[in-house]
TrEMBL record:
SUPFAM superfamilies: WD40 repeat-like. Its main location: nucleus. The keyword ATP-binding does not apply. Keywords: Chromatin regulator, Nucleus, Repeat, WD repeat. This is Histone acetyltransferase type B subunit 2. Residues 34-104 form the Histone-binding protein RBBP4-like N-terminal domain.
Length: 434
């Protein structure tokens, strides 16, 4: 997860940042608690599903697996979620796989069924069966900065570590409760830790990683053989940026193109055949933390920055930004396009919020009252976290279902109400929202 602007300032020898006073911290915590109480009061009207789980340790990464299991005679399906741990001190870290039970559609959700103690709604109330269960824990060396499964072989999982090493695990070769650290492959090429990690959707076994050492490495794990002691070197190392590489992403349809963003404020799109950035732009006024190629519109790219904005770009013309999405109050850390609804983009921030943007609403006229709630393209703002959002993921099977993890150990699984995102005709009465 890219660092926030405040963390970068604290690392600068030339800049001294005054720590918040005890009184300021109390005021901030009080404000956060009041905002959370307001969100909690409105939650039954804003969501069709809410499930909150307090993890033993926070996770910096989360991703839904591509499968789901139906159960005859049950009102739920089982999905799987990939998470990690970020422990303190000498406690053991793990790569973890969890089962998540999501209720099948049950018609209208009654806000009166909201379980305030469990903070749940959506068909869970009254059920004694577990909703979130850790099914496998694989010992990991150091914190799991990021974990992603290979799309062609989801049992194969790569992780970015705090040491700079990249590990590849075949989860089928590990016990449900492993006791020793034994990745199938070690990828050695970075000198510092990183958060950029992405498998190629087109080239099986090809992986990109980006690091604080300013380099990007491309790996081909199909070159692995048992005779080389499970260690492989990158097939290419790219020196494209002048500062920390925060994110790398393969293009979804062009197998030789990838994008990268950096603290040097640039977005670059590189062709692996030449090794040079054919497209480059100073994308923001501050560090660029994340990027996302549109899964269908091949020329559209989104970037998120420490300048608190999300920018939209056209690969055919980097001279001019298409649009800037303004709604966050902190550094934008992560971006993901909706897997089922093409115009929808989600972003998360250090401001503890996840925002859904509807690009079809850009430029729509607003009343002065509507303007107070943000630009017309701001579709929904999730306010269920009281700490920085580390990662989030759209569910590939159930539209609008999302998992989000924050640094306060809380993992939430939720689906925004259909009335809000325009998926049913019912409108929420204004008097019901506090």
């Amino acid at each position: 997860m890219p660092r926030s602007e405040d963390e970068d300032l604290m690392d600068d020898d030339d800049v001294e940042v005054e720590p918040a006073s005890a009184e300021e911290q109390i005021v901030t915590e009080k404000l956060i608690n009041e905002e959370y109480k307001t969100w909690k009061k409105n939650a039954p009207f804003l969501y069709d599903i809410i499930m909150s789980t307090a993890l033993e340790w926070p996770t910096l990464t989360t991703q839904w697996f591509p499968d789901k299991q139906e159960h005859e005679g049950k009102n739920y399906c089982t999905h799987r979620l990939l998470i990690g741990t970020h422990t303190s001190g000498e406690r053991q870290n793990y790569l973890q796989i969890a089962d998540v039970q999501l209720p099948k559609p049950m018609g209208d959700i009654d806000p009166k069924d909201y379980d305030e103690t469990r903070e749940e709604i959506g068909g869970y109330t009254g059920s004694d069966e577990a909703r979130f269960t850790i099914k496998q824990r694989i010992v990991h060396e150091g914190e799991v900065n990021k974990a992603r499964y290979m799309p062609q072989k989801p049992d194969v999982i790569a992780t970015m570590s705090v040491s700079g090493a990249v590990y590849v695990f075949d989860r089928t070769k590990h016990e449900l409760e492993s006791t020793r650290f034994k990745p199938q492959i070690r990828l050695e090429g970075h000198g510092k830790e990183g958060y950029g990690l992405d498998w190629s959707p087109k080239l099986e076994g090809h992986l990109l990683t980006g690091s604080e050492d300013t380099t990007i490495c491309q790996w081909d794990i199909t070159s692995y053989s048992r005779s080389n002691n499970s260690v492989i070197q990158p097939i290419k190392t790219y020196n494209l940026h002048q500062s920390i590489v925060n994110d790398v992403r393969w293009h979804p349809t062009h197998s030789t193109l990838f994008g990268s963003v950096s603290d040097d404020r640039t977005l670059k799109v590189t062709d692996t055949r030449t090794g040079t950035a054919g497209h480059s732009v100073v994308a923001h006024t501050d560090a660029v933390n994340s990027l996302a190629f549109h899964p269908v519109s091949q020329y559209t790219i989104a970037t998120g920055s420490a300048d608190k904005t999300v920018a939209l770009w056209d690969l055919r013309n980097f001279k001019h930004q298409l649009h800037s999405l303004d709604g966050h109050q902190g550094d934008v850390l992560n971006l993901q396009w909706h897997p089922h609804d093409e115009p929808i983009l989600a972003s998360s921030s250090t401001d503890r919020r996840i925002i859904f943007w509807d690009l079809t609403k850009i430029g729509e006229e607003q009343t002065p009252e509507d303007q107070e709630d943000g630009p017309p393209e701001l579709l929904f703002m999730h306010g269920g976290h009281t700490n920085r959002v580390s990662d989030f993921a759209w569910n590939p099977h159930d539209p609008w279902v999302m998992a989000s993890a924050a640094e306060d150990n809380l993992l939430q699984i939720w689906r925004v109400a259909g009335a809000i995102v325009g998926k049913d005709d019912e409108e929420i009465p204004e008097e019901e929202l506090m």
